[in-house]
Amino acid sequence: MTKLVIAIDGPAAAGKGTLARKLAEAFGLPHLDTGLTYRATAKALLDAGKPLDDEAVAADMAARIDLAGLDRNILSAHQIGEAASKIAAMPSVRRSLVEAQRRFADNGDGAVLDGRDIGTVVCPDAAVKLYVTADAQVRARRRYDEIIARGEAADFSAILADVQRRDERDMGRKDSPLRPADDAHLLDTSKMGIEAAFQAAIAYIHARL
Ligand code: C5P
């Protein structure tokens, strides 16, 4: 069997994580949510009381992250996401995490990786590249609905401002900015449920293989 690497990129709350999990299951491949590697590094720094603006300290922490121990439940806090997006702008943090992510992708029959720079930097030779996006309003609404469904209080305009700030930071940084790879297939989920996005992705992948 030839190796199948599926690279999925896109902004926060576009649906790429759910899509990545479903595709990994459908193709029997391991899945890595690379956002968790940045989140785990950020959490380790916060827990240790270390500064978030010292690149050498952050890179040292990034080098110790164990991909096997990543758990979104522990890493989902808003404060961790914010800190992750700050340290993700540091080239030596990225170098260390990208190396671990590439090792994951190179192992076995293939893998599904999702993040911000998978098709452009981590796996530029991936057989399949998807760029999953949606309007900022729609993404903020999804976040809002998730929080309300948990029975917590939420402020839509604060969430929207947050989504926009994160987009600016991820798209505007010098090292590995978020953008679609030239050969990525675009999936706009603004008006599409996750099942429709999954079916569209499956059809695209089968047409490519
Ligand atoms: O996807 P998630 O929100 O968990 O990612 C947290 C942060 O990690 C993002 O805002 C982004 O700054 C960073 N990240 C990245 N490159 C990736 C994955 C995530 O820069 N491949």
UniProtKB/TrEMBL annotation:
Keyword Transferase attributed: yes
Primary location recorded for the protein, binned into one broad class: cytoplasm
Entry's localization field: Cytoplasm
Superkingdom classification of source: Bacteria
EC annotation from Swiss-Prot or TrEMBL: 2.7.4.25
Domain named Cytidylate kinase: residues: 6-206
Reactions catalysed, as given in the entry: dCMP + ATP = dCDP + ADP; CMP + ATP = CDP + ADP
Any coiled-coil regions, as ranges: none
Molecular function terms from GO: ATP binding; CMP kinase activity; dCMP kinase activity
GO cellular component: cytoplasm
CDD domains: CMPK
Residues that, per the record, bind ATP: 10-18
Record HAMAP family: Cytidyl_kinase_type1
Name of the featured protein: Cytidylate kinase
The organism of origin for this protein: Martelella mediterranea
Taxonomic placement: Bacteria, Pseudomonadati, Pseudomonadota, Alphaproteobacteria, Hyphomicrobiales
